[in-house]
Amino acid sequence: MRSKLARRAVEGVVRAILVGASGFSILTTTAIIVVLTLETTRFFRSDGVSFTAFITGFEWNPLLGAEKHFGIWPLICGTLIVTIIAMLVAIPLGLFTAIYLSEYAPRRVRAVLKPVLEVLAGVPTVVYGFFALTVITPLLRGIYAGFEIYNVFSAGLAVGIMCLPIVCSISEDALRAVPTSLREGAYGLGATKFDVSVSVVTPAALSGIIAASLLAVARAVGETMIVALAAGNLARMIWNPTEQAQTMTAYMVQIFLGDASNFGVEYYSAYAVAATLFVMTFLLTLLGHRIRIKFREEYE
Fold it and tell me: Do 83 and 217 form a contact (C-beta atoms < 8 A)?
């Protein structure tokens, strides 16, 4: 009798903790949305600010003492270029590494290599930023003198290295979750190990691979310290990755650590940029959910 009462008490406590944790996460998300909405509304109510110009403008210059322009696209452009470069590094290398760990690597090698890769995810992003500024950029300038000291290519490479463990770890888990019966059936039909890995296992794990890639994209879009240190702080529309540019997160760092007044339009513009970034990551999350549902494979 006492054991049943004790078990029920423990289950009640665990249930209360789980409900509290989920409620806290919902409350935090709601608070973020409310704050972003209120402060962004203040920004658009300021003099000289137009919502149409904000979402369609190609010039961003909110600094004091200058003619102010609030067109968000230069910041979006810098963010997207860094993200594209990062994904060109993280997704192929992460997927190839995941296939090796899942299908080719001996157990001892996997036991050592995977934790080493996952350690990269625990490195502070400010370290990646200084690494990009002091190691990657000098190497790039040694290869081609046209690289500026601050450039989006160096920042993109560092962000790609940072996102590599995300793609590799989640993709490897998805590949290993594919039933062994699929592999055995392919081997029984005369397929080679390469054929099984590329034509059977990888398509079967496509849902998890796409989810890992989109998670890495969202992580790269929201990265702050690397781009603040290595990409520069000049907001402009560029297509040349050897030049400097400013991302959305880097601008927010500049405003919150700068001399802008807490009641000026420059300060409130950071919340408008943050709201735009929130919408972008939210849409990426929805897209990832739809893709996972579409490509999800169920096995009995």
Answer: yes
Nearest to 169 by CA among 227, 122, 223, 106: 122
CB burial string 235-254: b at 16+ within 10 A, e below: bbebeebbbbbbbbbbbbbb
CA distance 165 to 154: 19
Residue 105 zone, left/alpha/beta (φ > 0; ψ -120 to 50; rest) = beta
Tokens of 43: 């920004």
Block residue for tokens 């993709």: 171
The reported pTM is 0.86
197, two tokens: 């890995």
Is 201 within 8 Å of 182 (Cβ atoms)?
yes
Going by the DSSP 8-state scheme, the letter that residue 69 receives in this structure is E
Task: Show pLDDT as tens, one digit a residue, over the chain (300 residues).
Answer: 567 777 777 788 888 888 888 889 889 989 988 988 888 888 888 777 888 888 888 888 877 556 777 888 999 998 999 999 999 999 999 999 999 888 888 888 888 888 888 788 788 888 998 899 899 999 998 888 888 889 999 999 999 999 998 898 888 888 888 888 888 888 888 888 888 888 888 888 888 888 888 889 988 988 888 988 888 888 888 888 888 888 998 888 888 776 666 677 888 888 899 999 998 888 888 887 777 777 665 555
Nearest CA to 220 out of 135, 128, 136 is that of: 128
174 CB contacts (<8 Å, ≥6 apart)? 98, 205, 207, 208, 209, 211, 212
DSSP assignment string, 199-240: IIIHHHTHHHHHHHHHHHHHHHHT--HHHHHHT-S-------
Query: Looking at the chain, which runs of residues are DSSP E strands?
Result: 60-61, 69-70
How far apart are the C-alpha atoms of 214 and 210, rounded to whole Å? Answer: 6
| Residue 22 parent element (H or E) | helix 2-44
Q: What is the largest CA-CA distance in the chain?
A: 79
Residue 61, helix vs strand vs coil: strand
